[in-house]
Amino acid sequence: MATASLALRDQTLLPSPASFGASDRLSQEIFSILESNFLFGASSPLEGSCSVGRVRVLSIDGGADGGALAAAALARLERRLQELSGNPTARVADFFDLAAGSGAGGFLAAALFACRMPADAARDVVAKNRKVLSGRGGRGGLFRRPEAVFRKVFGDLTVRDAAKPLLIPCYDMASAAPFVFSRADAVEAEAFDFPLWQVCAAACGVGPAEVASLDGRTRLRAAAAAGGGGSASAAVANPTAVAVTHVLHNKREFPFAAGAGDLVVLSLGGSAAASLLRPSSSSLLRIAGACQADMVDQAVSMAFGESRATNYIRIQGNGIAAGETAEAALTERGVESVLFRGKKLMAQTNGERLDGVAEQLVQEHHRRLESKTPVVLVKPSATPRTSSSSASTLITVSTNSSSESP
């Protein structure tokens, strides 16, 4: 690990790869925006600022650490939100408008937004089931089967039961493409609604091989964890691009979100650095996932431009203190991505940056209490309407997967 320790200094790190074959189409849309804006001088749809208020987005990576750092960060954030708001029963979900999560991040997002689980309790579940949530299979903590932990937490809850917009991407083997489970589509029809325990199991690469909607019309073949895990979330390790794209293209629920100035995004990454010291299929998958996560981070960070210091906050381990606990990673200095140039250390620690996010979230919460104009119009689950932009993608995937399902 000596080499890794020397690599990360105050100067920019060695450059990251300039492309990654497994990046999904939503990530490519972000790159196309960057290309038109920064290479050809065209105006970017990610620019702009809204005087009404900012949409608060929570994005949680899958990560090889099984969500340990993200869970620790959420526990700290929730405690700080309770202190600043003066409400000891406040939850993370009260201060965000949308959550997106892949792999273990999908479990955390669903637990907080559908079960309203306290962040401390979610952290405990993650700690007891690290292997399952990181896609490494094995026994699920105290449970005999890996997927049993998801059944225990979510019971009969479905995607449409989430209190607020929820996005959980996974990889569909039948159509060879990413598949996004979305509350916005689930409230419209049972063809877009899925049991949450199956969704989270599929996102982590464990559980049933086929996931079916409530009415059986939409099916997908989940990518199973292979040789130590990571395959299920490697292609969509960082869901931030999915979340940003969903907000900017969903004018019914986010009518005033026109650009980066209208968003405040908290993106939680992982703490475990991939290693090539012992090459294997599982380590290569983890490296692929880490590469995809970093590429999305760099692209989104650049797209936010000058507002990224306040409107886009990325929390992840800096890789220096390998083997340290997730809580210890919060005391490390944060890292900032520089598009196609790697990362550099920041002056603040991850914990200090989380505290700053908490202050922004509480300020926005108080501002909304005094405003008569709603920033977000959450679609009620009992009122079906015309499908959102992501529904057309789901219909296509449904058609492809239905014909190829066993």
SSE topology sketch:
Elements: H1 2-7, H2 25-39, E1 55-60, H3 68-85, E2 98-101, H4 104-113, H5 119-128, H6 130-133, H7 148-154, E3 166-172, E4 177-182, H8 183-186, H9 196-204, E5 210-212, E6 219-221, H10 240-248, E7 263-268, H11 281-304, H12 308-311, E8 312-315, H13 326-329, E9 333-338, E10 342-349, H14 350-370, H15 391-404
Parallel strand pairs: 1-2, 1-7, 2-3, 7-8
Antiparallel strand pairs: 3-4, 5-6, 9-10
Helix pairs in contact: 2-11, 3-5, 3-14, 4-9, 7-9
Commentary on this structure:
The chain has helices spanning 2-7, 25-39, 68-85, 104-113, 119-128, 130-133, 148-154, 183-186, 196-204, 240-248, 281-304, 308-311, 326-329, 350-370, 391-404, and strands at 55-60, 98-101, 166-172, 177-182, 210-212, 219-221, 263-268, 312-315, 333-338, 342-349. The protein has a single domain, classed as Cytosolic phospholipase A2 catalytic domain (3-Layer(aba) Sandwich), CATH 3.40.1090. It has 406 residues and is an alpha/beta fold. Helix 3 crosses helix 14. It has a 6-stranded mixed beta sheet, with helices on both faces. The termini are far apart. Residues 381-399 have a biased composition (Low complexity). Pfam families: Patatin (PF01734). It comes from Dichanthelium oligosanthes. InterPro entries: Acyl_Trfase/lysoPLipase, PNPLA_dom.
